[in-house]
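Reviewers of the previous submission asked for a worked example of the structure-prediction workflow described in the proposal, so we include one complete record here. The input consisted solely of the amino acid sequence. No template or homolog information was supplied to the procedure at any stage.
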Amino acid sequence: MRKSPFDDLEALRQVFGRIGNRFKEVIERRGFHRLRPRGDAYVRIDRHDYPLSNWTPTGFCIRPYNGALIAGQKVTVDIVIRDIHDRDGEVRFHGMAVVSRIDEKGELAARWWLLDAAQRTLLLSYYEKKQPKP
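From that input alone, the workflow returned the following structure tokens.
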């Protein structure tokens, strides 16, 4: 009798389902650990500044958000991160992002949609310096 590919999928769900629930906060869907700024960090959208909650090279979250954007909308953003006692100093990113979600608690999540090569290189190098050491 031939096995269905779904049989293997169900076996994996049974094994990893138990593990996944216990370690859900450790596993990141986006492939990067979220970094929380330790100082003055904000996202400027339509001339309004919103506190940066966390960020990765693929996107960012701001909280609280009380603007008029909706999920799926593209928006031009400026991000400024100034961490306390940081030797690297202030870093700024400018680009376009797509709003992934806005939840009932007022958190907006977005992912980068258009970021020029120099900005992307800066973002990745800054992230490499800031990410937690294993």
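The chain has two helices and six strands. We consider this example representative of the routine output the project will generate in years two and three.
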